[in-house]
Amino acid sequence: MTGIPSIVAGLFAYALFALFLGPGVRLGIMGSIALAVLMIPVVVRSTEEMLRLVPNELREASYALGVPKWLTIAKVVLPTAIAGITTGVMLSISRVIGETAPLLITAGFTASMNYDLFDGRMQTLPVFTYTQYMNQGIPAEAFIGRAWASALTLIVIVMLLNLVARSIAKFFAPKTGR
């Protein structure tokens, strides 16, 4: 599932909602579902691998001290694996943050802002970048400038999310007592 094209995820979400709401409907929640279909396999796989990398000796030492299994997971396993888990989440967010194809199919396009996920078409930043660059008006420099500004905004969002992920990983990482 990690290698499916984004357009297939968009078609899946569109078909799922078309069964219940009828064909031709465009909703923001459909775009969310399509992006979640793209994100979930990456997050699950990276989380699974990070939890497997935690040494069994740490778990066994905790059990030997009489710590319950749930507390071992909460206090030993998760803090040890949190850096890798946040990295997996960041990888999946980075994959979907610039996706245009599934959002064009599911959320559509509108020239105005729509804040309701469950009502009508929505404007998304990747689609805005695409339309500003491909459908240039007069003056063309203004449309190209808006496309570059929205691309920069996407990059800044990814950078901020990366900084948050690094701070989470650093805060929850196990402390070394030397």
Task: Summarize the model shown.
The chain is an all-alpha fold and 178 residues long.
Number of helices: 7
How much of the sequence lies in strands comes to under 5%
CATH architecture: Orthogonal Bundle
Mean pLDDT, to the nearest integer, reads 85
String of helices and strands: HHHHHHH
Q: What form results from the Cα inertia axes?
A: elongated
- Helicity range: over 70%
Structure description:
- By secondary structure, the chain is mainly α.
- It has one domain (7-172): MetI-like fold (Orthogonal Bundle).
- 72% of the residues lie in helices and 0% in strands.
- The protein contains 7 helices and no strands.
- Helix 2 (28-53) crosses helix 4 and helix 4 runs antiparallel to helix 7 (140-172).
- The radius of gyration is 21 Å and the shape is elongated.
- The relative contact order is 0.14.
Record keyword descriptors for this entry.
178 residues, mainly alpha, MetI-like fold, 7 helices
Mind sketching the topology for me?
Layout: H1 6-21, H2 28-53, H3 56-64, H4 69-96, H5 101-106, H6 125-134, H7 140-172
Helix pairs in contact: 1-2, 2-4, 3-4, 4-7, 6-7
